[in-house]
Amino acid sequence: MRVAIQGTYGSFSEAAARRRWPGLETLPCREAKDVVAAVREGRAEAGCLPIENSLIGSVTTTYDLLEEAFGDGALRLTHEILYPVHHTLMAVPGATLEGIKRVLSHPVALGQCRDWLGTHLPDAELVSAWDTAGSAEIVAQENNLTVAAVAARHAADAHGLVPLVERIEDDPTNQTRFLTFTRSGVELPAGSSGVTRYKTSIIVLIDHKPGMLALTLQAFGVGGVNLMALQSRPERSAPWTYRFYVDVDGAATDPRVAEALEEVEALAAKVVVLGSYEAWVEGSRLSAPPPTPAHHTRKPDIPLVDRRRAPDGSRIQVRHLVFGGESPVLIAGPCSVENETMILETAEAIAKVGGDMLRGGAYKPRTSPYDFQGLGVKGLRYLADARERTGLPVVTEVLSWEEVAVVARFADMLQIGARNMQNFSLLRAASRSGKPILLKRGAGATIEEWLMAAEYILAEGNPNVVLCERGIRTFERATRHTLDLNAVVMVRERTHLPVIVDPSHAAGLRSLVVPLSMGSLAAGASGLIVEVHPDPAHAMSDGEQSLDLPMFADLASRVHPGRDSKARLAVSSWQRDA
Ligand code: PEP
Ligand code: MN
After folding, report:
1. What is the DSSP string of 197-257?
2. Global pTM?
3. Is 374 in the pocket of ligand 1 (CB under 6 A)?
4. Which residues are catalytic?
5. What does the pLDDT look like over 277-292, one tens digit per residue?
6. 3-class DSSP state for residue 546?
7. For residues 75 and 182, what is the distance between their CA atoms, to the nearest angstrom?
8. Is the CB of 539 under 6 A from ligand 1?
9. Whose CA is nearest to atom 10 of ligand 1?
């Protein structure tokens, strides 16, 4: 097989290509565009070009070729190669390090050996050459004992030189990434990497409208496609506009990538798919891909949530806590995080009397757009501080898929609220965060709909779901909602997932919260989530249903009777402090 490379025999491109195809024959070309031409015209089966260096960054000459070279679909990328760049100082036989007065190489190579050259050859003249192997060729032709080249070790053999010193690069982690390509329809010999993973590279041209770049790339995020690199290059014909080069994890035929690409093509002014190619697995940082989307797989005979899959019930761990274990988990905290002091003080009081976990909304789903919407990231930071202070793990609500990443950054468990139970892109994104999920039942959702919402999360690869019954809407107006204890019992028959109860939102009235809590535990709930506020009369949201601290202490002592004495002691010391 003949592979076109930029540079001459002994170049890094040649060595990189040999890493894939040891027996290849090289076709040296002067410039990157000549490599493209050689492949297009069939003078070589494949081309191999450097695209990126781990220290220097993008090889812009290669990037700038891509649209023109690949735009008509005649070529496609086939393989990625990562090649460690070690430099060798080489000269004609008989030369010595002490005798070297002039050093030739590509300026990037000289730059990568700057410290070494400064220390060992401080007086030598450094001369830029067209490429590394080409400088070795010049040194061989000059046949002068005072001239050396910096190039790959094998360039010495290729040009009859001897290595004077090997591995003179300043940073031993230095690597270059190469891409190989061929004509569409040509099959190249399989790579030698063992495990096969694919990447897809595309060029995206975007209309200049506010938000368009983010919206276009978002298509990858929503679908769970890992966007691995984004490079912008100026559009030569239109100053201060750019084209974007995007690398994603996966082949264009993967359902996730295919769906995302369809959206990108719909949004962007132009998309050129350069190809899906075998990624270099060894030493690269490829994360585990998300599972194939459920709608592209066969429906399991038994749903993932079905109790038959785990007849003894699943135990879901959140830090040191276990839902579905022997002891109920008591989650407490304000409806919303209102300010730093209030969440810290409330968390401390909850911890003292035996609460297990802290709740508090930083993003609030409010019925009216004029109401307090939560403190956002500030609220998340305060929650994390409260965890530091008290050791209580934190659960907090995430309202949309866009916020999943930031909420997951701070929370130990993501709450999907009643209003969002069937927000399927949110369910999928929350699943992919890898955090345990607290899935509240929609106020108008049937048990079947609720379990299928949980199925979405499990099918996207995250098994850690805890269900939460929080009251459903009935004709009854005396209470905010109607706590459906039928569902708690029924759900335990139908699913292995633990279920907890939120009596606060179910009742909407604080006086009902303790009795409903006890009833819920009697019905088999694995825990409770209750709203607690240090001054419910002045709460920014849901004050009527929030327990004050003494009421919560009473609840905690009933939920965790074993911790009774410690809890009482803690209440009284808290009251003393106050
Ligand atoms: C909450 O827990 O603060 C909340 C908004 O609950 P729900 O989604 O059950 O209404
Ligand atoms: Mn609330």
Report:
1. -EEEEEEEE----TTHHHHHHHHHHHTT--EEEEEEEE-TTSTT-EEEEEEEES-TTSHHH
2. 0.86
3. no
4. 176, 178
5. 999 888 777 778 888 8
6. coil
7. 6
8. no
9. 418
